[in-house]
Design a protein that fits this description.
Elements: E1 3-6, E2 9-16, E3 21-25, H1 36-42, E4 47-51, H2 68-81, E5 88-93, H3 95-107, E6 111-117, H4 126-142, H5 145-155, H6 158-163, H7 165-176, H8 180-192, E7 207-212, H9 220-229, E8 233-238, H10 245-248, H11 250-264
Parallel strand pairs: 3-4, 3-5, 5-6, 6-7, 7-8
Antiparallel strand pairs: 1-2, 2-4
Helix pairs in contact: 1-11, 2-3, 4-5, 4-8, 5-7
The structure holds D-malate (MLT).
Amino acid sequence: MPTIQINGMTFNAYDAGQGAPILFVHGFPLDHTMWQQQLEHFSKTHRVIAPDLRGFGQSDVTAGTVEMHKFADDLAAVLTALDVDEPVCYCGLSMGGYIGWEFLRRHGERVGSLILCDTKAAADTPQAIEGRMKLAQAVIEGGSEAAVEAMMPKLLAESTLQRQPHLVEHIRRMIVNTDPESIAAALRGMANRRDSTDMLDKIAVPTLLIVGQHDALTPPDEMRKVAERIRDARFVEVPEAGHMSPMENGAAVNNAIDGFLTKNG
Ligand code: MLT
């Protein structure tokens, strides 16, 4: 797995397969391994690139506040370092979707098509901002376990909790292995992010929106409204899945992405 140096910072990025590139951008506070089922499947037909965002996975720890546009600029630099010049299919989950709006704004020429999983376009409510600030504090004081306690109950569908306990363990591991400073920095960045609703009707690339039927954080109704505002959008609701649909029902998500890529190259 290549290690990439960008402005003195080390990034880790999974890079496999050949063909049209797909850029997989993980959610918070996770790492690229959340895309395991997609990476295995799509590396047979595409070049799949899945970086660990700054502060996460094997990429360097980061502190302070990381704005969504900073993550987006990092991704563009990772693509440059990997010699990817052609437009990619950008596929982001949740925070990976928030970063996607900034990637479109700042590096739109790099996006050939867009896949957004379990995410939203709206900014945080004042209540959500307060929750994020409290969690940032709790993590700094008490360690990353505080993020496990806060996030885990909201991430997975009931059926996943009962039938796929290994996913609970995988998610827990990703979170506890993340440095508290990095978790807090991303929380502050998400709290600061701007509303992206007004850019939806300007999106000109083919777009696929995927959401778990039982997603408690970014519910299907909210994502359906996002889809309705994008000119060339397809909306897929994934059964037996919550917020982590690519992990919880990988087969259905891969099937939806396969259909989208077949139609859109
Ligand atoms: C994520 O999955 O990236 C987070 O749940 C996003 C968020 O907290 O808004």
